[in-house]
């Protein structure tokens, strides 16, 4: 029993939903969490996701529950709650799939049938430029994306889009890819490839181990356009950066296009090859900010139409005013309201919205968000918010992570567990970090680290006040 096995129902709805989900979240994440040991069933009044253990269940609820609900609503036209359950029987099935895969590979190798394969033709991605909601926070990035798709030759190279998570960077990259896929170059369809920084790294490492680097280079260097999402993932990976540098040079010198997206400006991505940074800033570097109120309202209105929800203008306005985070947070709020209305047999009205969001607003309705704090701290330490969330323990990253946790406790109403979940850490790590910074401030102890400009040492209290003043 696997994620791709059809439900006990006669239709193929679960299979279609999983296929759409794979396009939405990307093949790497889908294969890691849904390919083996996970089953999805569409019941009459809910969607059930069965997983092999509590760890996977917690991760599924935290990272994929809203994504699954959105895909279900898009495919079925119904807003159904997603319930995650643990089925111990799936543990054995997961192990069986792993063994079957290994046995199949061994058999093919013995038969001499394990040969290099041609890369599969890219499939259409979910994002389209026509569906992108344009506002003051993203107008420049959208215009740059449109210019690339309309010009016969690249008007600028590369295009580097940066901004916080969930503001539309991936949507723009996928929209560019889909538009380019409909163009022709020298009488033939344009070739393109969309990958994440993690996928590029994994493919390169696999090619090195299998001694198929030439095949890897042929797959990338002959493209008409290469789009790399989360390019900051290449930070501190010297061999991969060197390979990407040569790949970029080959594509760019051939008059072809490279587009990228990152959480931070290229100069603020820690441990990036200076040669890469110089090439990135030589093109078009454009930032996408969190959407303003009018843009959030337009996003909510379009999303509710796609989900076939009947939502009054006052409800949309209430959500747009109070949910000021990412586009994903806006979509998740709509899904929550729709699920509550259906389960309770109610309509989506203002009292329901106020009640549903009261707990969320009590915890997050602040002038500052954790994302604001991470951006300010990351810029000060010359690292990215992604570094703060990573498992890296270099002195600059550890110091920045500790300071961000302390500021989150001081300037937001988030609890220790909430900060820990948001930053991918255990709440005990947050407690220790906050206590350590408080002790340093009380003892007037300096915080020392080595940045791009060399060693630095700043009194902890002075650093906290400097960053607090910037945040205010």
Count the DSSP helices: 21
Estimated helix fraction: 55-70%
Global Rg = 24 Å
Q: Strand-residue fraction?
A: 5-15%
First-residue to last-residue Cα separation: 53 Å
**What is the strand arrangement across the widest sheet?**
7-8-9-4-10
Sheet with the most strands, sense and barrel status: 5 strands, parallel
User: Looking at the structure, what is the overall shape?
Assistant: globular
Mean pLDDT: 81
Structural class: alpha/beta
Number of strands: 12
Low-pLDDT regions = 1-10, 98-121
Explain what this protein looks like in three dimensions.
The protein has 472 residues and is α/β, with parallel strands linked by helices. It has 21 helices and 12 strands. The protein has a 5-stranded parallel sheet with strand order 7-8-9-4-10, with helices on both faces. Strands 1-2-3 form a 3-stranded mixed sheet. It has a two-stranded antiparallel ribbon with strand order 5-6. A hairpin with a 2-residue loop joins strand 5 and strand 6. The chain starts with 12 loop residues before the first helix and ends with a helix. The N terminus is likely disordered.
């Amino acid at each position: 029993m696997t994620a791709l096995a059809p439900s006990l129902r006669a239709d193929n709805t679960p299979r279609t939903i999983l296929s759409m989900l794979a396009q939405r979240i990307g093949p790497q994440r889908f294969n890691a969490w849904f390919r083996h040991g996970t089953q999805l069933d569409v019941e009459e009044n809910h969607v059930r996701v069965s997983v092999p253990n509590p760890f996977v269940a917690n991760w599924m609820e935290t990272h994929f529950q809203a994504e699954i609900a959105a895909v279900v609503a898009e495919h079925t036209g119904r807003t159904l709650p997603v319930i995650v359950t643990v089925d111990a029987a799936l543990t054995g099935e997961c192990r069986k799939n792993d063994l079957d895969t290994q046995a199949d590979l061994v058999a093919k190798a013995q038969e001499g049938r394990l040969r290099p394969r041609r890369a599969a033709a890219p499939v259409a991605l979910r994002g389209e430029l026509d569906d992108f909601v344009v506002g003051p926070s993203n107008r420049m990035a959208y215009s740059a994306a449109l210019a690339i798709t309309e010009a016969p030759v690249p008007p600028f190279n590369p295009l580097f889009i940066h901004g916080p998570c969930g503001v539309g960077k991936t949507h723009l990259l996928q929209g560019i890819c889909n538009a380019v896929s409909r163009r022709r170059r020298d009488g033939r369809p344009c070739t393109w490839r969309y990958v994440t920084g993690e996928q590029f790294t994994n493919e390169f490492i696999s090619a090195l181990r299998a001694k198929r680097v030439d095949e890897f280079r042929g797959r990338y260097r002959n493209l008409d356009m290469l789009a790399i999402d989360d390019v900051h993932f290449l930070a501190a990976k010297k061999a991969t950066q060197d390979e990407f540098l040569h790949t970029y040079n080959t594509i760019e010198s051939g008059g072809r296009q490279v587009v990228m997206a990152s959480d931070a400006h290229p100069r603020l991505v820690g441990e990036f090859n200076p040669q890469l940074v110089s090439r990135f800033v030589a093109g078009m570097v454009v930032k996408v900010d969190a959407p303003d109120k009018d843009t959030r309202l337009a996003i909510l209105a379009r999303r509710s139409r796609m989900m076939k929800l009947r939502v009054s203008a006052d409800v949309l306005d209430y959500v747009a005013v109070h949910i000021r985070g990412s586009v994903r947070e806006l979509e998740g709020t709509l899904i929550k309201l729709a699920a509550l209305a259906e389960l309770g047999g109610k309509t989506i009205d203002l009292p329901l919205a106020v009640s549903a969001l009261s707990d969320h607003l009590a915890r997050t309705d602040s002038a500052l968000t954790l994302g604001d704090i991470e951006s300010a701290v990351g810029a000060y330490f010359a690292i990215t918010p992604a570094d703060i969330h990573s498992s890296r323990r270099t002195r600059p990253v550890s110091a920045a992570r500790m300071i961000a946790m302390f500021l989150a406790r001081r300037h937001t109403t988030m609890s220790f567990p909430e900060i820990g979940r948001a930053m991918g850490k255990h709440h005990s790590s947050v407690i220790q970090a906050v206590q350590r910074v408080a002790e340093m401030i009380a003892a007037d102890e300096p915080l020392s680290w080595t940045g791009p400009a060399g060693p630095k040492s700043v009194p902890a209290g002075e650093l906290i006040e400097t960053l607090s003043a910037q945040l205010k």
